[in-house]
Amino acid sequence: MKVSRTSRLNGEYQKAISEILRYAKDKMHDLKGLVSVTEADVAPDLKTAIIYVSIYGLGEAETKRSFEALKANAGFIRHELSQMMHMRTVPALTFRMDNSMVY
Predict the structure, then answer these.
(1) Whole-angstrom distance between the N-terminal and C-terminal Cα of the chain?
(2) pTM, two decimal places
């Protein structure tokens, strides 16, 4: 079975961003609760990536505040990703909530 490059990169970006979020929680003070990267969808040209996250906070307001903090720190996460992945281009990150666990 042949696996495409973008599907391999999706998995690698998912793991790398999860690791970044795990150790960078100290720097992002508004990021509370359990943050889980459920999926990464990298464009074939490697310019953009949509990152789906689930946040289990203390309540709805806390979850929204954590998601806004995550979106505000997208540049920092992209910088850390460039240090970790060593690729020529690192995609611009767009975060989206994954509410599939609610269903």
Answers:
(1) 32
(2) 0.87
Residue 59 carries which DSSP code? S
Average pLDDT over residues 59-64: 88
Tokens 């309540």 locate to: 59
Instruction: Measure the CA–CA gap between 26 and 84, rounded to whole angstroms.
Output: 18
**Tokens 């042949």 found at:** 2
What gap in Å lies between CA 15 and CA 72, rounded to an integer?
A: 20
30 membership: H or E segment, kind and range: none
Q: How many CB atoms are closer than 10 A to CB 17?
A: 23
Q: Outline where 1-103 has alpha helix (H).
A: 5-23, 60-72, 74-85
- CA–CA separation, 58 and 66 (whole Å): 10
